[in-house]
Amino acid sequence: MIAPQSTVKVNDIRSIHRVIVIGAGPAGAAAAMRLHDQGRSVLWVDRSDFPRPKVCGCCLNLAAIGGLALVRCDQTVRDLVAGELRYWKLENGGRKIDASLPGGIAVSRTRMDVALIDEARSRGIEMRTNCDARIVDVTAKSVVVRLSDASRDEAFDVALLATGLSGGGVSRWLPWIQEPSGPLGAGIVVDELTGVAPQTIHMICGDQGYVGLVQLEDGRIDVAAALRKEKFSETGGESLKSGRAEILNQINSILASSSLGTLPQELATSLMTTPPLHRQRRAGSGRLLAIGDAAGYVEPFTGEGMAWAIGTGIAAADCIDGDRVNLDLGQQWCDTYAAMMRKRQWICRALSQSLASPSSSRWLMRGMHLAPWIVRRAIWRLNKPLPVAGRAVDLLTRRVSEGPDAAPRSRVGL
Ligand SMILES: Cc1cc2nc3c(=O)[nH]c(=O)nc-3n(C[C@H](O)[C@H](O)[C@H](O)COP(=O)(O)OP(=O)(O)OC[C@H]3O[C@@H](n4cnc5c(N)ncnc54)[C@H](O)[C@@H]3O)c2cc1C
Hints:
This protein is α/β, with parallel strands linked by helices. Helix content is 34%, strand content 24%. It has a single domain (13-401), classed as FAD/NAD(P)-binding domain, CATH 3.50.50. Helix 2 packs parallel to helix 7 (304-320), helix 7 packs antiparallel against helix 8 (329-354) and helix 9 (358-370) packs across helix 10.
């Protein structure tokens, strides 16, 4: 579907004062902090009660940490973990690819998201949890929002939608370019799992999809999977409750083909799931701007998802702060978003398409084995600083910015 062009014209971008940021994942956190740094009045809300678990691989790459540095939160998150990620191991049909990572960390979302909320509050940002937000109207000069903890609707100069994969109800203003489709996400944190090495991102691929595993800051193992929907039986794929046992079976059959252990069946009830992952919507309209997963989702492989979320949060705040007037802010954000993300996401898009069928994934593994520089180059590109303004990103990520040869050399073997 081709998204219609927005017709709203905004002539007084400089008059923007009060901004609402909806959603307290990494996109919302980065946006709220950046807006606060710019001197704006920010209301930041999330409907969840924190700490809350989330389906996520929990790996932050150097681009993500560099983004957090721009809003002075990198140390807040680094303080939660002991060491850096060092290796990326891919297993597919008995073949193994090992590569070194230039850096990055694994941190549970329960702890990271709370740490960012605490940091925001300590800086004086008004942050409300247990507060569901619904967009009621979008006009040329404001966005009207209904907050579950307020008795009246409230108008804001700009609303940033950072609601992740779940936040619906805005298709009237931000129509889908690609409706949600493709694999489902599933995740769980377990106390232990045989074979998961410290400081290592494990990726196991199978006919059903792939599973990512990493050891968290407290030694537990985060398991996050993207599973092909057509591989579920009809009832299992459609109903979350009845489907959990089947989803666990799918994860276990992928793990069974690897050198790692499998998950006990009784954990099925604790499994978290997501709606279909692949999606893209118009990123902005009038004064409503979508950031992070709310704007679109492409499967991450070495911790890119949160980097894109943080990067788009910062860039959207900068877009509001821009000097250009007489422009439709929503359209300006659509253009900025497209320029920022297109080149970034193609590697992950290509990788996920190649892993989508057993034959193409076999070719991919063979290619990576024969030409290990491809893996090294791809990892280097994905860790490159995001194109947002600021000095801290370049400083923090200079190891990768210096080029692929500056990063430790990849070891690749069968
Ligand atoms: C299987 C899987 C593995 C992944 N692995 C990784 C990885 O290793 N590394 C990585 O970087 N990324 C990974 N990702 C991607 C990463 O999780 C997302 O890209 C990232 O969380 C997006 O952040 P966000 O801020 O956009 O949204 P989210 O983190 O999803 O946050 C959205 C927030 O909005 C709130 N919300 C929703 N609706 C409303 C509402 N109406 N009102 C108020 N609040 C609302 C929710 O409660 C939630 O807290 C993975 C994703 C999946 C599915």
